[in-house]
Amino acid sequence: MKKGIVFSVYGYTYVSWTVSDGFVQMKDVKPVPVTSTTKGLNKDIKVEFRIFLKGEGIDTELNVHAKGNPNAEITVSGLNLVKVKQFLDKKDWYYK
């Protein structure tokens, strides 16, 4: 891969990211923050999401918007992004 390329992470070890054609060392990567938005966020889901973030030690803000279809925005990068997406996928919660 060339310097400056943006790529998606499929998994990780403690020293490298798993990408489509192999591995990239974490020390050589600058994670790009990504904002994800959830939809249909009821009170119970919001509480569970906050408990997950605290339990994983993910230091970020969960911005909740209660008007209309309740949703939340979260901005994370690197391993925290992988953890958040895995959590949302496991719960089958919508996000984009």
Account of the 3D structure:
This protein is α+β, with helices and mostly antiparallel strands and 96 residues long. The chain has helices spanning 43-56, 78-91; strands spanning 11-12, 16-19, 22-25, 34-39, 62-65, 71-76. Strand 5 (62-65) and strand 6 form a beta hairpin. The chain is elongated. The chain contains 2 helices and 6 strands. The two termini are 27 Å apart. The longest helix is centred in the middle third of the chain and has 14 residues, at 43-56. Helix content is 29%, strand content 27%. The protein folds into 2 domains: 1-30, no CATH class; 31-91, Ribosomal Protein S8, Chain: A, domain 1.
How would you describe this structure in keywords?
alpha+beta, Ribosomal Protein S8, Chain: A, domain 1, 2 domains, 3-stranded antiparallel beta sheet, elongated
| Pattern of helices and strands | EEEEHEEH
How much is the average pLDDT?
Answer: 82
Helix content: 25-40%
List the strand order in the largest sheet: 1-2-3
Shape category: elongated
Total count of strands: 6
Secondary structural class: alpha+beta
Give the DSSP E fraction (strand runs of 2 or more residues): 25-35%
Number of helical regions = 2
Top CATH class of the largest domain: Alpha Beta
CATH level 3 topology of the largest domain: Ribosomal Protein S8, Chain: A, domain 1
CATH architecture of the largest domain: 2-Layer Sandwich
- Rounded to the nearest angstrom, the distance between the terminal CA atoms is 27 Å
